Amino acid sequence: MSILISGKEANLGPLSVRRVLPHRDVRSVGPFVFFDRMGPASFEPGQGVDVAPHPHVGLATVTYLFEGAIRHHDSLGSLLEIQPGDLNWMSAGRGITHSERETDAVRNSHHKLDGLQLWAALPEDEEESDPEFFHIARDDLPVIDDAGLHMRLIAGEAFGKTAPVPVKSKLFYLDVRMDAGAQLLLPGENQEAALYVVSGNLRIDGDLYEPENFIYVPPEEIPDIVAQSDCRVMLLGGLPVGYRHIWWNFVSSSKERIDKAKADWAAGRFPQIPGEDDIIPLPGRSTG
């Protein structure tokens, strides 16, 4: 049976975030252990997103925008601005540091931001891999058009297509636009799946879902998915990677590895971002 999950609001400075995963009823979907809706938010000149350098281990951050722009900068030296429809995929492996800010041109104007950030837990044998960063432009993502469906494959494999970003586990992540009355099949057999309604209305096995609803579909289910109106849905899932410990920005199959990451960040042993000296301190620890 499908499960409707309600996210909880969190404020990250001026940005409102609705956190859906992890949830008490559904801790993960395939390898995806974290799902945040960022915005929609509107900023006056001088306001905006300014997330100082912070660390990650054991996961890949997956950033996808509907509106606005964010400048990504990391300890590998990657520095670029993500635009709506682009993909930023950052595989932390054994450890990476990055910041998420806005350019002066964006920040000094009235602007909006809306998008998603997901985390995909790395398989256990990849948790200590070298950190990597990939940016895939919108026009380089595979498109699938079929019977009232217009789908863009962001990551993984689905419907006979493979996205260009290298992934380390079996997964799929798609941006799906459905005409009213269109039907959607899930792309993978025996894989967990979830649908997040961005706009419009959707019926799953006759039940009506609306924007910001997140619906988990267990691997044994073959649901009847029909667009009640023109709608936009994010479709994600894959094979589970097993239980993961999650603390702050760290994900690992080992609690001891989480403890090591805490100690390393507190002691300044993570790689640094060129030209950025400010950091987000370890939660519960004073910077003074």
Automatic annotation (TrEMBL):
InterPro entries assigned: Pirin, Pirin_C_dom, Pirin_N_dom, RmlC-like_jellyroll, RmlC_Cupin_sf
The keyword Nucleotide-binding belongs to this UniProt entry's keyword annotation: no
Pfam short name (any one): Pirin
GO molecular function, one term: metal ion binding
Sequence ranges assigned to domain Pirin C-terminal in this UniProt record: 173-270
Residues holding Fe cation: 54, 56, 98, 100
Cofactor(s) listed: Fe cation
Domain Pirin N-terminal, residue spans: 17-119
Keywords: Iron, Metal-binding
Note accompanying the cofactor annotation: Binds 1 Fe cation per subunit.
CDD domains linked to this entry: cupin_pirin_C, cupin_pirin_N
Keyword check for Transmembrane: no
UniProt record similarity statement: Belongs to the pirin family.
Name of this protein: Pimeloyl-CoA dehydrogenase
Record lineage: Bacteria, Pseudomonadati, Pseudomonadota, Alphaproteobacteria, Rhodospirillales
